[in-house]
Design goal:
Elements (H helix, E strand, L loop, with lengths): L1 H8 L19 H12 L12 H9 L19 H11 L21 H9 L19 H12 L19 H12 L11 E5 L6 H12 L2 E4 L1 E2 L15 H6 L8 E2 L10 E7 L7 H9 L6 E7 L18 E2 L3 E3 L5 H8 L9
Parallel strand pairs: 1-2, 1-5, 5-6, 6-7, 6-8
Antiparallel strand pairs: 3-4
Length: 351
Amino acid sequence: MRNKLLAALLSLCLLFAAPACAADMDRPAEQEAEKLSEQSERFTDVPAGAWYAGAVGYCCQQGIMNGTTASTFAPEETLTRAMLVTILWRQAQKPAVDYLMQFSDVPEDQWYSEAVRWAASEKLVSGYGDGRFGTHDPIAQEHLDLIFRRYTEQPVTSGIPGFDGSSRPATRAQAAAAVMNYAQLPQQGIAGSKILVAYFSATGNTRPVAEKVAEAAGGDLFEIVPAQPYTDADLNYSTDCRANAEQNDPDARPAIAGTVEDMDQYEVVLIGYPIWWGRAPKIIHTFLEAYDLSGKTVATFCTSGGSGHEDATLRGYEPDAVWLEGRRFSGTSQVESWVDSLDLPEARSDS
């Protein structure tokens, strides 16, 4: 969720029309700055010398923000809660949710109705105690600052004129400046790392741990799904079941349905699995043989209600990876402290 929300925040000022400007990344810096100024000049309410002119031009150029009309930008207009959740919902590709929404000020047939339903179900933005969502209430500066600080850990609102982090409404101009400030962070060496959490969960016990790891690390989730699903009989360890046969066969490599899309984009790979007879299931061997993790930071975590530990034999598949100490979990209570102990590079989310 963190990755999706951060991507949504980069589109904080997105209007719902198609962008009118396109980026030209090949121009020298001074020419690019001039072009940004030119982009904002088409707005009659954005003077060329205004402090926000460059930010407005940048947001227009990147398709992040557009004018409220063909000739106006409305830099002093505020963002409403309904607009914000709609932006987040659309950035998340309009997920449909089955959630009973009972806000007195959110009719079922409004342009923001499904966005409010989704945001409430995900607990991204909740309603007020009096049964209202506050659809047309403005977004306060303190809330805009809090959201950006939480996901960037950088003061992207610092230095924005008129922005003091108070309960005053944030303007479109201030939001545009914050978006451009955030976009400049990678140029300052704060790009971070892309983290993948890959896990196998035959009975569902490893899944919540993996989800907690991904939440704590800010990573993407990938479930290692067997091409031939395991049945209850396959996992009946008191018999000569499929799982036992695979664990006793050094050459067993259960096939995996699906692959990681663009493994090269990840700098960190965390791999989770249940303990089968004191070891990782052979499908984890299949996963490690399928990818080259050389140079990546790798750690494993396993789940077991009793015995078992990190399967050190897995390191032999990726001798050129940077291996960190793994951990066994019987629940999710210690996940965050383990992730923190790994001292991973700051997570990056692509917009």
